[in-house]
Amino acid sequence: MSGTILTLARRLQNKEQSAVELTKEYLDAVSRENGALNAYVHLTPDAALAAASAVDKARLRGEDLSPLAGIPMTLKDNLSTDGILTTCCSKILSGYTPVFDATTWALLKARGAVLLGKTNMDEFAMGSSCETSCYGGAKNPHNLERVAGGSSGGVASAVAGGIAAYGLGSDTGGSIRQPAAFCGLTGLKPTYGAVSRYGLIAYASSFDQVGPIAQTAEDAALVFDAISEKDPLDSTSQGRREETFPLLSQPVKGLKVALVKEYFDGLAGSTTESAIQAAAETLRAMGCEVCELSIPEISYSLPVYYILACAEASSNLGRYDGIRYGYRTEEGWESIHEMICKTRSEGFGAEVKRRILLGTYVLSAGYYDAYYKKAQSLRGAIHEAFEKAFCQADVLLCPTVPRTAFPLNFTGVDPVETYLTDICTVSVNIVGLPGLSVPCGSDEEGLPIGMQLIGRSFDEATLLRLAHQYETARGPYKSAERGVRV
Amino acid sequence: MSGYQMVIGLETHIELSTKTKIFCACTTAFGGEPNTHCCPVCIGLPGSMPRLNRAVVEYAVRAGLATGCRINEIAKMDRKNYVYPDLPKAYQISQFDKPLCLGGRILLKNGREIGITRIHIEEDAGKLVHEGGKTYVDYNRGGVPLIEIVSEPDIRSVEEAVEYVEKLRLIMKYIGVSDVKMQEGSLRCDVNISLRRSEADPFGTRAEIKNMNSFAFMEKALRYEYERQAALLDAGHPVVQETRRFNTATGETEPMRGKEDAQDYRYFREPDLVTIRVTKEEQEALRKTLPLLPDERFARYTGELALPESDATLLTQYRAVSDYFDAVVQGLPNPKTAANFIIGQLFGRLATEEDKEAFAIELSPDKLRALCELVAGGKITMTLAKATLEKMLDQNAGPEEILTPEEMAGMDDSQLDAVCRAAVEANPAAVKDLRAGKGKAMGAIMGAVMKATKGRADAGAATAIIRKMIESMPD
Questions:
Q1: Measured between CB atoms, does A79 come within 8 Å of chain B?
Q2: What is the CATH classification number for the domain harbouring A289?
Q3: ipTM value > 0.85
C-alpha cells in the first residue's frame, strides 16, 4: 500500500528517512506515473525540495513539528498558490499566477507541507469526471480505462496512485466525495463555513467548501484539523467546532445511523447497494443503532442544485474577460465588447458555457421567480427536512455515488445522465452539512465503492470517528499498487 | 410651449470618507498613481473575497439618521451583474431589496418635503482613462464606498432639485461622512424627469439622465430636458422611456439606451458576505454621534438668537463656521455682534469656498467672545472693536493683548462728560457756528474729543453730550 500521512510522519520522526529523501521518492514516482494518470497539471519540484529541506533543518534544530511537516501532497488547481500557476484547468486562466495564497494552503504551508504540484480537475470544478479539464481528464489508478471522478479527479488520482500522500480538493456538489469514492479514498466535504474559502476560485460560493482527500479517516482528520480555522478573510468562515483527531477513538456504541431511503432509489440488487448494506452490518456490529428513514424533499435536490449553483457560477465567472489576466483573444477586434465576447467564447469549454448560460437564464427578469426564487425556497425546505431527520439519527448513511467510476468519455456523451449521478452528494451541499466518503467495497470489476456519512452541522468529529473505527473494522482498503509504496 | 410641471426624482451617489475601502484595507485617498491603491480584493482576482468594512455601515446609518430614515435592523448585500471594463468582478456589490435605510426626508426652504425612498451602500467602480487613442483602466477608485440616496419623485422644479442636492451635500458634510467634492466625483447624480400638465395628472413617461457631477450641468440638463419633452408633448408625440446622457460640449442630453435595451442586472444575494445587523442600541449610539444639523442650527439662530435669516444661512453654510459661532456666542448677550464679526471680518480673510469650509482661523472662539463682551458692556466702540479684531487676527491675540488697560476699562459718563466739556471750551468758534445752525461744525469738536480719548469715545454718546451742553448754554 502507499504511505499514509501517519506512517510517513513516523518515518520522518524516527529519522528513517529525511523529508528531502521522501520528496525525491515522490517526485520520482510522479515522473513515472503521471504520464498514465494525468493527475498533475503543474509540477513544483524545486519548491517541494526547498520546503522539504526547511523541514529537515527544523527537525535537526529539534523544533516541535506537525505530523504534516515534510509530507508530500497536492492541491487542486483551483486553490490560489502565490507564485505558482493556478488555472482551474481552463484555457481562460492560462498563464495566471496568483499573488496570494489560499488560506487553506497558507495553513498547510505553515505546518511544513510539501507541495508537489497542482492537480487536474474539471474546468472550474464543473463536471463529474475530470474530463472537462483543458488538460484532458485524470485516470483512475485502479483501472486506467476509468475516470478518476470529478471534479477533484486529479487529487484523487494522485493520492490513489501513490504520487501524493494526500491533497486538498473542493466540493460544490460532490467534487471531493465522488472522486474519493471512485478511487477508493476517504474524502471529507466539511460543513459550509468550517474551512475558509479565501483563495478558492469560486464556482458556486454558497456551496463551495475545501476539504481533504486522503487514504484514511485518520489522515483526513489530521488535515481537517489543520485547515479548519476561522479566517478573517472569509466572512462566511466560522472554523471547526472542535479538533477531530483527538476524538477518533471515542466510543461509537449507541450512535444512531440511518439509511436514507431516497438515496437507494433504483439501486435494489446492485453491488453498490449490497456494499452499503454490508457496511451498515459492520456499523451495527460496532454497536451503532442502524435504522432507516425517508427524506422525500431529496427529490428536489438536483434541480435546486443546478439552478442555484449555475446562477452563482454565471456571476462568479463574469470576471474572466481577458482584460487583466489569463487568456485574451488574438488582436484584431474592433471593440472592447467584441474582445470580451471572443475571449470568453474561446477561453471557456462547453460544460462551463452551458452552466453560465443556464445560470444567466434563471436569474433573468421574467424567469427569476420561476427558477431562482423557487429554488431558493426549496433549498429552505430541504434544509428543514434534514434538520428533522437529524432528530431521529446522529449520522445518515447512503452511497456516495449510485455507481462506480465511469468509463472514459462517458460523461461527454450523456451530460444529463451524469448530472443524475450527483443525487447523493448535491443535497449535502444544498444544506451545508458535512459529508464524508469512505471506501466500503468494490464492484465485479474491482472498482471501489464509497459510502457517504452525513453529519450534523459542524459535527465532523462524529463522522471522522465513525469512519475511522469502521476502517479499522473493515481492514486496509485495497491499494492500486502504484507510486510510492511502504 | 410651456405650462408643464416637472416631476423629478434623484439618485445621488456620495463617496464616503472612510479611511479604507468597503471590502478591503486599501486606502480611499483620491488620486494616486494609477492602480496603486489596489489589492487582490478590489481588483477581483480569482479566489479573493470581500469583507465588509463596518465603518461603512456606520457612516451610512448616520447618513440615514440625519435624513430622518428608519434603519433596517437586518440588511444584506446583493450582486448587481453587468459587464464593463471598470468593474473587475463583472458585478457590483450593492444592496437590492434590503437596504440599510428607508423612508427619510429633506426639507426645502419653501416648506416642501422631498421624500427619501432609501439609502443603500455599494462599491464604486474604477475609471477608464483615454490617452493617445488607447484606453487604460485605473482601479484606484474601485471599492471606494458609496451611498446611493434615492429620492421620491417629489421635486417639482430645477431650483428644488438643486436645493435638494445642496441640502444633502451640506448634511453629509456636517455629519462628516463625506467631503462631497463634486470636482473629484465624490457626489454624482442620476436624474429622472417627466412632465405633466398639473399636480392632479398622473406621472408622464420619464427619461433618466445619468451621472451628472456638477450643479451647473444638472441645471442645464434639466432645463434642456424640459424643453425637449415639452416640445414632444406640444407636438402630440410621446416621450420615450430611456436613459440619456448629458453632453457637456453641446449642452444637450442625448439617448444612451432605450427601455428595451435596459440592463438586466440579475440581482441576487452576495453569497460571500453575511447578513448585516444594526441593533437598536447601535442605532441609538450612532444617533448620539450626530452633531446638531443645519436645519436645527438655523432654527436656533433665527429663533433663540434672533439673527436675520441671511446671517443664519451664511453661518450654517459651513459646519466649521457654525461650530465656531456656537462656541463664541456661549452666554453672550449680543450674538448679532459675533455674527457680524464672523461674516464681515473673518469671512474677509477666507476668500474661497474651500477656505470657508476649512475655516483655518487660528483665533480661538474665547478671544473673539472676549471682544464681543467688551462691545456688549459698552467698554469699547464698534470702530475700535473692528480695528482691534484685525490686529487680533493678525497676531492671534486676545483683546487684552491689543488694547491698553485704559481702553479696556472703557470710559464712564463723567469721564466722557469732562472730555466733551474741555472740547467745547477749547473750540468757541465751532460752538458759535453750531449755535448758528451750522451742523458741520460738530466735526471740529468731535475731532477734539477723539484726539483726547485716542478714539475710545463712543461717537454717538459724545455727540449727544455736546449737543446738550450747547443747548443749555445761556444765549
A1: yes
A2: 3.90.1300.10
A3: yes
